[in-house]
Amino acid sequence: MASRILHFQDVELYYDRVYALRGVTLELEEGETIALIGANGAGKSSILRAITGLSRIDSGSISFRGERIDGRDTARIVEMGIAIVPEGRRVFPYMSVKDNLLMGAFTRRDKAEIRQTLESVLERFPRLQERYRQVAGTLSGGEQQMLVIGRALMARPQLLLLDEPSLGIAPKLVQDIARSIIRINREDGVSVLLVEQNSRMALSISHRAYALTTGNVVVSGGSRELLNDPRIKDAYLGGAA
Amino acid sequence: MEQVVANGIYLGSQYAMIALGLTLIFALMNVLNFAHGQMYVIGGFVTYTFYGQFQMPFLLALLMSCLTLTVLGALIEKFLFGPVIRRSAREESTMLLAAGIAFLLDAIILLVFGEKQRGVPKIVDGVFNWDFRIIMPYDRILICALAILSIVAFITFMQFSRTGRALRALAQDRDAAQLMGVNVNRYSMIGFALGAMLAGLVGGLLVTITGVNLGMGGPTSIKAFLMVMIGGAGVISGAIVGGFILGMLEAVGLAVLSQYGDITYLVIFVALMIFLTIRPQGLMGKPWG
Q: Alpha carbon of B151 to those of A220, B14, B16, B144, B154: distances in Å?
């Protein structure tokens, strides 16, 4: 039986008394890809901020492999094996592609093995190999997206968080990115938590999904079923209810 | 002509190091360290104490300057700037704090080292003379070489070490760096200590040429700000370029303008103001790179 890698229990989070999450419970099994879908402001990004410790939760608990991580420092959480592809890509714009990738391995000390991971990442994204010495800020949006995914893989994470990886990317490249997410999950066995506004894409590459509206999980279930679920429309058109 | 260029390079090498420390601190923490000149003065006095008074080897005294300022910088970051940045929403708070620290350090310098001008014995004797085209004492050449060596070492460290990479990442995108596992508090402290160390190192180098006194802190800070404004705040290359430009301007000014009186810095200030209205971000203005 697969074990639970991430567990949210009744998590509440508010910014200046405005609720971002009101009692969210969700879980992720090892080896699974789950999607969080919902409109802007539904709380998807707040969930990621809560996991990575950039925002402190106000009640409830978050566990990673059975260990509480809420309240810990971001650096400590990342070290435990959680990597994130942040929203808006967030490459280090004045650093080379190489240095960006090496930053992904910041928590690792094993030089030889970092080298190996670097080679496998460059193999997976040949475009990054071509741009290896180039400054990251000069890459195209799609290339930057590959770079931040590669950077996250450099940490050899057990859990990969992706925040809107398709945002602002040309439609053709969205498919490439979707494919690489599938590969990361299937071939590397990394559990994936995918946050997306592009619900169709998200549902088509995930095992299960949670639909959020204004800080609540309103529908959850197998992604294939949800794709045909009439309620999903309401949920991801968002906020109206 | 050759003489002016040589003087400019000599001055520029010292200035660039001062500017590097200031710009590092600015890029990392968005702090304008008004106390940078005082840190430089402390570096000078520490080398004076160990080399001039205790007659220890010069390089050892220099090391003591670096060490003192590293520790001082780390403490100032950990107990003063760090908490203020975390708690305060207003950026002016750190500026006021920096100004306060400048006064505090001035007072400490007065208390510990006194108000007298202090000098040390020459580190090497003799004068280099190239056909009367370039005349420069050997100690200046040595100090200049040490400064350039330090700059190269600093850049190499920032460019190729794991810590340097983390510092650059932190300067470029704080949140993203944190998400890579960079401990912001620890690396802010390391960066600040490193910037302070550079100030102390130049202070220790220059005490052998110019001596040191309490009053040098403020003017040194002002020069450091000039260089950073010329080159562009928060950029390594900008600090180096700014340092060498100011050094060169000063050398040219002393050679050309001194016949009209002590107006070199007047001219530099006016030129800088005009320059900044045209290019407010400085020559290389962009975040840390």
A: 58, 10, 8, 11, 5
Residues of B within 8 A of A90 (CB-CB) are: 173, 175-176, 179
CATH 3.40.50.300: which residues of chain A?
A: 4-81+157-236
Chain A residues near residue B172 by CB distance under 8 angstroms:
92-95
Going residue by residue through chain A, which has 241 residues, state the pLDDT in tens, using 9 for 90 and above: 468 999 999 999 988 878 899 999 999 999 999 999 987 778 888 999 999 999 999 999 999 999 999 999 999 999 999 999 999 889 999 999 999 999 999 999 999 999 999 999 999 999 999 999 999 999 999 999 999 999 999 999 999 999 999 988 888 889 999 999 999 999 999 999 999 988 888 999 999 999 988 888 888 889 988 888 877 766 564 433 3
- Structural fold of domain A4-81+157-236: Rossmann fold (3.40.50)
The secondary element (H helix, E strand) that includes residue B45 is helix B36-47
- Shortest distance between the Cα of B232 and any Cα of chain A, in A, equals 15
Q: How far is residue A31's CA from residue B113's CA, in Å, rounded to a whole number? A: 65
**pTM reported for the whole predicted model:** 0.90
B168, A92: Cβ pair inside 8 Å?
Answer: yes
Under 8 Å between Cβ of B143 and B208: yes
For residue B236, give the chain A residue with the closest CA: A94
